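Supplementary notes for students who missed Thursday's class. We covered one full example, reproduced here. Read the sequence, then the structure, then the short commentary at the end.
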Amino acid sequence: MSAQPYTVAAAVAAELVAQFAGEMTVTSKALPGATLAELASPLATVVPRTVEPTQVSRALVTKDVVIEIGIQQHLDDTDTDTQVAALAALAEAVLDHLWRLPLPTLPAAQFLAAELNPICDTDLLRSMRVYCGIVRVTYRV
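Structure (token representation):
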């Protein structure tokens, strides 16, 4: 049986593939990473990040699973501000889409919270011309 964090990550990745086909490539990985060539177009990498168990009763434990979705693209040498704004809008669209969304492939998962932080990793942008925004979504399973 798959570990719950990876099951939740797979369900989130499946939802993003269904919603954002044609806008970005979606992968689910235990160890994220991509070459600059792979970042020529937007790439979303879905990674399970943390699990926090909570004892609800003597017999019941729930787990809050945090999934991170890194949205990345290597920018060309044209207008950086315009490219960053478009990619930040895509990251925000991912956040908006997942907000309170039940996962069709994992209906037992209950949405708890989501955030977009950072909107843009300025160190990575400055050093490698790569946009990276991180959407964090928490589900209770």
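Commentary. The first strand starts at residue 25 and ends at 28. The domain at 4-140 is CATH 3.30.2000.30 (STM4215-like). If anything here is unclear, bring it to office hours.
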